[in-house]
Design goal:
This protein is of the alpha+beta class. 19% of the residues lie in helices and 26% in strands. The strands form 2 sheets. Strands 1, 9, 10, 11, 12, 13, 14, 15 and 16 form a 9-stranded antiparallel beta sheet that branches. Strands 2-3-4-5-8-7-6 form a 7-stranded antiparallel beta sheet, covered by helices on one side. Helix 2 packs across helix 5. The longest helix has 15 residues. The two termini are 20 Å apart.
């Protein structure tokens, strides 16, 4: 491919969890008192009375050793609130979630977090549901994702995935005032055009955020977002010929992906690896890039012969939204691999394809989506 490409991690903007009118329950609708042993304090302060979610705690018990400091953290003075949550300077998740990678696979997310989180107990879930019941269903909807206790006093977490890859991290607290103070102290007030919400645009590290605050519950949602493009001239270093260079990785060690994708390339667990307890050393390569002539992300997955550690197949997925983009895609492929031809797959499907002395490349077109597969002849 003649045109050079811009390497960047890319994402999709999540829908804001704002509301048109800040909701407060009427006087007759009291917030229910919460039980002892909850991640939420009985007085609604958000303090963790049991140290639930402390590193190493089991699903059935919290660490009483941390209860004193946890109880005070939920009511810390506003100046110290940001320190308690340990938010980074740029929009992004606090510890322990700061170790997570955008679009990280579910099994790798859980392995990265390890003992620093645990699934919320039945009591914690019930008490969260009781508070949600006081609010409109659309405001704090049940996404069906697991809820976790965290080392952050009085804070539960929800992890959401799209296509088995991390898309959102939501931090939930019964103490809306504390969470709002912590966030605004660190990141400012953001966009407050919608009552009861603070919205923060995507940062340079690829996260956007929405904080929704009510009298019953507060939620900070961190969503994977597109990293702004870095402008390059055609002669700038670090640009590469996407399709030809990906083809050159077939037969190479997996680590060679860094040569093509730079910092955008990560080595992760293989697609067929499921639960953390069953993870083996099986690995694959993954990278998101943005093509300048489409303006959308294209995902490359490198699959490996686990015995040799060498790449045996590359799959590239992306979309062409306009006719001109389809024309440019074929132009780039022709420049990389020569004249296209009709290829009949082993399963009898007819595909657009290319064939070189070493590679077979097949294209599956489900307009506007394309899947490009490369493997050795």
């Amino acid at each position: 491919m003649r045109a050079a490409l811009l390497v960047m991690l890319a994402g999709t903007s999540g829908a804001a969890l704002g509301c048109k009118d800040k909701y407060r329950p009427p006087d007759s609708e009291q917030i229910p008192p919460l039980r002892n042993g909850s991640a939420f304090a009985a007085d609604g302060s958000g303090a963790d009375r049991t140290g639930a979610g402390a590193v190493g705690s089991s699903p059935s018990e919290g660490s009483s050793a941390t209860s004193g400091s946890a109880a005070s953290a939920g009511t810390a003075d506003p100046a110290a609130a940001g320190l308690a949550l340990a938010l980074p300077a740029e929009i992004g998740p606090p510890p322990p979630f700061d170790k997570l990678r955008r679009y990280q696979k579910r099994s790798d997310v859980l392995a990265s977090l390890g003992a620093s989180i645990r699934e919320a107990s039945g009591t914690e879930r019930r008490e969260l549901d009781e508070r949600k019941a006081l609010l409109p269903a659309w405001m704090f909807a049940d996404h069906g994702d697991p809820i976790y206790s965290t080392p952050i006093p009085g804070v539960l977490a929800r992890l959401s995935y799209e296509g088995n890859r991390l898309q959102e991290i939501a931090l939930i607290s019964a103490n809306g005032t504390w969470l709002e103070t912590a966030v605004t102290t660190r990141w400012g007030t953001g966009d407050t055009r919608t009552p009861g919400t603070h919205e923060y645009p995507a940062s340079s590290v690829g996260w956007s955020a929405t904080l929704t605050v009510t009298s019953a519950l507060a939620e900070l949602v961190l969503t994977v977002a597109e990293i702004p493009a870095i402008e390059h001239t055609p002669d700038a270093p670090g640009l590469f010929k996407m399709f030809a260079d990906v083809g050159s990785l077939i037969g190479e060690p997996l680590a060679a992906g860094e040569r093509v994708f730079g910092d955008a390339f990560v080595i992760e667990s293989a697609d067929d690896e499921g639960a953390v307890a069953e993870r083996s050393e099986a690995q694959q390569g993954y990278a998101d890039v943005t093509l300048p002539w489409t303006g959308s992300e294209w995902t490359t997955v490198l699959r490996v012969d686990q015995k040799t550690g060498k790449v045996v197949q590359a799959t590239i997925d992306g979309e062409t939204d306009e006719y001109e983009e389809r024309v440019e895609l074929m132009k780039q492929l022709k420049a990389a691999f020569g004249k296209p031809q009709t290829i009949i797959t082993d399963a009898g499907y007819q595909r657009i394809g290319f064939s070189t002395t070493t590679l077979v490349i097949t294209l599956t077109d489900h307009d506007p989506h394309w899947t490009i597969e490369m493997h050795r002849r």
